[in-house]
Specification:
Chain A: Pathway: Amino-acid biosynthesis; L-histidine biosynthesis; L-histidine from 5-phospho-alpha-D-ribose 1-diphosphate: step 5/9. The complex is a heterodimer of chains A (about 260) and B (about 200). Chain A has about 260 residues and is α/β, with parallel strands linked by helices. Chain A contains 10 helices and 12 strands. Chain A has one domain (about 5-255): Alpha-Beta Barrel (TIM Barrel). Chain A has helices at about 30-40, 60-70, 85-95, 105-110, 110-120, 160-170, 190-200, 215-220, 235-240, 245-255; strands at about 5-15, 15-20, 25-30, 45-50, 75-80, 100, 125-130, 145-150, 155-160, 175-180, 205, 230-235. The longest helix of chain A is centred in the first third of the chain and has 13 residues, at about 60-70. In chain A, about 55% of the residues are buried. In chain A, helix 1 runs parallel beside helix 2 and helix 8 (about 215-220) packs across helix 10. Chain B is an alpha/beta fold and about 200 residues long. Helix content of chain B is about 25%, strand content about 30%. In chain B, the strands form 4 sheets. Chain B has a 7-stranded mixed beta sheet with strand order 2-1-3-4-14-13-12, sandwiched between helices. Chain B is globular and about 50 Å long. Chain B starts with a strand and ends with a helix. Chains A and B meet through loops of A and helix 1, strand 9, strand 10 and helix 6 of B.
Chain lengths: ~260, ~200
């Protein structure tokens, strides 16, 4: 049976793992390669490395970090952040990534999705979407809006419309972050995730708000109120020894969710 | 020498990396049919479109592989590399596979047993009905998880060595004497996947 995936996310700045709370506060959490291996050994199904380095000089550091992290990592490895062209993507793939995650650059130039897919396959392209619920609409979830630039800039795009377009342009997966729940550890945005998951055929990775095993069970659930997610991503929950994937998966299995065990 | 065939379809980095990690001797990434003919083992990786395998026929690699496997050279196809061992795929109807195994690869159905089936099939799924005589899957127990990412799947044939269930069973691994293939990505399948590659390296 196809299992639900637990994805450990490392936010990296200048070669170090950091994690923002609601995209703002930053706390140092360690070396990316070391943390990636620790997560994989503890049962994470995939590793995502998101580079939040703003400067051009940081790009060389990123490729070095990717190379070091990928060297002995034998689970799927995604790299995102600052990938603006098929050439940027190729450099990251050559350094050892299996997939790239693109966000603002796909909004700026949606053709990029197909361009990367043409060379490396659709399975290698994740379109990351940061969304915030509407404050003015009667349907705040359905009219949730896509934001770019680390959540600072509204785009005027409805998240469901953009997810569908990304799929049509050849995205392999959607990584959906709810800005309303991100960093709060109060649970994923199940309603938003379920709406996007129902709108597309490709897998949807839920992100933002993980705080307990119960939150993962909710976002994976296909029952009323569940998030219908295919995978879920968490960062801060894992980094400071809050829990590891193996403990999390044991709890999920008890809750009737199909997960990869032993891992 | 292990020849890893580069047919410009996706990313070979991770397959090479995994084989290097396992201390596989003399790994050569190549497009040269003569080098492929000399190899003791051939690996055909592949993530991407079935259409990309057209390059194998156009560049003489199909013939080189056909001759090599007839002589008993060990062959491992991964993902599209497994699919290519069959007659073809509805993904690119005009492109012929090697035809070593009968039948064509088909897209996952849109629904199965009354519920919608998402595709691609992405993630960790279990190996079932593992053939006990399989050299490639030696030491792997039914229920072992491996990583998949694909929308087309190969039919079940006599040479099927393991199945995975998603919208019904499909060929997860195929093995007939020296010719082997896996639909999953062993290079991305943690301990279970490394075991598969190690089995191949040790043949």
């Amino acid at each position: 049976m196809l299992t639900k995936r637990i994805i450990a996310c490392l936010d990296v700045r200048d070669g170090r793992v950091v994690k923002g709370i609601q995209f703002v506060d930053i706390i140092d959490a360690g070396d990316p390669a070391e943390l990636a291996h620790r997560h994989a050994a503890a049962g994470a199904d995939e590793i995502v490395l998101l580079d939040i380095t703003a400067t051009h000089e940081g790009r060389g550091t990123l490729l070095d970090t990717v190379k070091r992290t990928a060297a002995a990592l034998f689970v799927p490895f995604t790299v995102g952040g600052g990938i603006r062209s098929a050439e940027d993507a190729a450099a990251v793939f050559n350094a050892g990534a299996d997939k790239v995650s693109i966000n603002s650059s796909a909004i700026a130039r949606p053709e990029l999705i197909g361009e990367i897919g043409a060379s490396f396959g659709a399975q290698a392209v994740i379109v990351a979407i940061d969304a915030r619920r509407s404050t003015s609409s009667k349907d705040p979830v359905g009219d949730a809006e896509v934001y770019v630039s680390g959540g600072r800039k509204p785009t005027g795009l409805r998240v469901i419309d953009w997810a569908r377009e990304a799929e049509q342009r050849g995205a392999g997966e959607i990584l959906l972050t709810s800005m309303n729940t991100d960093g709060m550890r109060n649970g994923f945005d199940c309603e938003l995730t379920a709406r996007v998951s129902a709108a597309v055929q490709i897998p949807v990775i839920a992100s933002g708000g993980a705080g307990s095993a119960a939150h993962f069970a909710e976002v994976f659930s296909h029952n009323e109120g569940g998030g219908k997610a295919d995978a879920a991503l968490a960062a801060s929950i894992f980094h400071f020894g809050v829990t590891d994937s193996r403990a999390l998966k044991s709890e999920l299995q008890r809750a009737g969710i199909s997960v990869r065990l032993p891992c | 020498m292990i020849a890893i065939i580069d047919y410009k379809a996706g990313n070979l980095t991770s397959v090479v990396k995994a084989l290097t990690y396992l201390n596989a001797p003399e790994i050569t990434v190549t497009q040269d049919p003569d080098l492929v003919r000399k190899a003791a083992k051939i690996v055909l990786p592949g993530v991407g479109h079935f259409q990309a395998t057209q390059l194998l026929a156009d560049s003489g690699l199909t013939e080189a592989v056909r001759e090599s496997v007839a002589r008993g050279t060990w062959f491992l196809g991964v993902c599209v590399g497994l699919q290519w061992l069959f007659e073809g795929s509805t993904e690119a109807a005009a492109t012929a596979g090697l035809g070593h195994f009968p039948g064509a690869c088909e897209h996952f159905p849109a629904s199965f047993e009354g519920t919608d089936l998402k595709s691609p099939h992405v993630g960790w799924n279990s190996l079932e009905e593992i053939r006990e005589d399989s050299k490639l899957l030696r030491g792997i127990s039914p229920g072992g998880f491996v990583y998949y990412t694909h929308s087309w799947r190969a039919p079940i044939v006599q040479a099927t060595a393991a199945v995975t269930n998603y919208g019904g069973p499909f060929t997860a691994a195929v093995e007939q004497y020296n010719v082997m293939g896996v639909q999953f990505h062993p290079e991305k399948s943690a301990v279970v996947g490394l075991k598969v590659l190690q089995n191949f390296v040790e043949l």
